[in-house]
Amino acid sequence: MHEQNAEYVTNGPMTEVDVLNKASEILETKFLKGEGFTSPSAAKDFLRYKLAHQKREVFAILLMDSQHRLIEYKELFFGTINAAPVYPREVMKEVLQQNAAAVILAHNHPSGVTEPSEADKRVTKRIKDALNHIDVPVLDHIVVGQDTVSFAERGLL
Hints:
This protein is α+β, with helices and mostly antiparallel strands. It is 37% helix and 21% strand.
């Protein structure tokens, strides 16, 4: 676990992507079996660092324990600049393998527009319905672009 005011040293110049990757590593360490994702803003901050710089669509999940602490962040599906195939069966398989008690779904929109599409809403419902059979709640689905949108905050779950 990193200290509140830990210092970090680089071995030379860093690109913007390098800085974002380092920031996401620091946040991942913070949430990995440490602090829980107790609000949409914490998850949104974490996911912004993980997904905002991606040039193609990436669908990821946050696998969490019963206290909503991170077990693992996993990028599952990769697509083109505007779509990624998502398979609920594969999501369920990861949830079972990691013994997750809850999940947050996430994906980016490389276009920067974060408004959830009808396809986003449909896949969220399919995954939520599948995970309901094994008593694992979907706490949120976050879309990352120029901003971040939380399905939970919008009442879309």
